[in-house]
Amino acid sequence: MQQVKSKSLFYIIFIIFVIVGVCLRFENLDSRPMHTDEAIQAWRLGNLIEGEGFEYLPDDGHGPGLLFLTLPVLWIKSINDYIGLEEQIIRAAPAIYGSLLIILMLLFRRLIKAPGIAAAAALMALSPMHVYYSKYYIMEIPMLVLLMLFLFFSWKYLELQKLRWMIGAGFVCGAMHATKETFIISVAALVIAATVVFIYEEINKSTKARLKLKDLIKNFSIGFILMALVSAALYSIFFDNLTAIKESYTSYLNYLSRAEGSGHEKPFYYYLRLIAWNRMELYTWNELATLILASVGVIFSFLKNNDPTKRTIFLRVLSLYTIITLLIYSIIPYKTPWSILPFLQGSIILAGFGFTSIYELSNRSLKLRYISRIALVAISIGVTLNLYTQNQNALKFPANPDRTPYAYGHTSPSLVSKLVKQVDELKEIKNDLSIKVFHPETGWPLPYYFRGIENSGYYPNVVGNMSSDVIISDAAYDDDITKKIGDNYIGPDLMNLRDNVMLHLYIEKDLFFQLVNKRSEQN
What we know:
Elements lengths: L1 H25 L9 H14 L15 H13 L9 H17 L5 H18 L1 H6 L6 H21 L2 H15 L5 H21 L9 H23 L7 H16 L11 H7 L1 E2 L4 E2 L2 H16 L6 H22 L9 H22 L3 H31 L16 H17 L5 E4 L7 H4 L6 E4 L10 E5 L3 H8 L3 E10 L2 E8 H14 L1
Parallel strand pairs: 3-4, 3-5
Antiparallel strand pairs: 1-2, 5-7, 6-7
Helix pairs in contact: 1-4, 1-5, 2-3, 3-4, 4-5, 4-7, 5-15, 7-8, 7-14, 8-10, 9-14, 13-14, 13-15, 14-15
């Protein structure tokens, strides 16, 4: 009876943290400007829903998975054009999938048991990194949902060796490839981990890790074919653009060259410091509790060597998979903070198992049971408050890379509060306002913010006729711009696109004075 009550309590805790996690993920979705990557994905989504199709950009565009996974949100909101893609609407998609990640912990209830489900849900719900990127319109969070399903199908296949689980794994792999090409790192890490554990079990004369070779070859072949078909169908928009299928594989050559850094070089320990203990201006960021509990989970997964069960074997695979994932990403010089989320996801599942192990260990001694439970409750409350505080701190400076470690190469808030706002004022004065942007990277995310201005153009170099109501350029183009516009414009007014990237704003003289007069009348 006591065991049933305890189990019920843990599931109540699980439900509470699901609610908390959902609230955190939908809180202030528009608190920061659009990152360049978000804006580009929004533009691609706009093309898709407006019937212009999907163009695969092997250099940095990624597959259409994120776009397809966003469509249900657009259908609910009855949005069918690019202009309707407001920040809150498109960011609702990763917020939904980030919330789903917490609920999907239930898939592993037999693996890490009820205490582990509650602990993992709490750590996932309150994870500052997970919460932050669940409000970020990029591929990572939807990708983690697919990755969690892949881990679950892999576990079930190890346990039962049924074709249906390999079919599930193959389908999800195809969807992962169509979402982001770097899924291959997670798959490779799992395969390496499974191989190492198999050898380890054979050395220890355990047969529980063995799979029927004939069935494995047959089932794997079917799963692989399904993966290729799903991936091809999604990349080609159901076989309408066959070139994209080929490019989805040749793009790995580009990724190999970019892995050297391409301006994103970081030291080997970057990811571990990012998650474990990151002291910045004003705040210290950490998910140390997750790493400590995950380490406990890894240790306990290898403690029982005598006749391990399938559950124990998969926990060992999961342990090695998580460690190998961290090592691979740490070795690659090219590093961005969101890339390490697969490692954090594996760590959270292992942390759940680590918590279960500690909880069960404390139950063995009647004398220590109540003391240990009080200690666990006290520590859990402390960790919860710490993680919640970090999430609130992230809301204060969501786009400041000096105070929030997850804000990486982010658009300056002043771009929206000053430049975009000023252009909106000019558009109220002149309905057919024209804008020209001269920038090596076409000024993203400006094309997103100016998507309602039909007469706008974006150029990587200063070329052609300068005739336009508003000219925005990279600061390096100032000499070329001023030579061509003469004294017909007021400017340059300096604007910050992001850290160390300045823009110059020029406004046609008559239009500028109309703006000044309008503001003086309003005051």
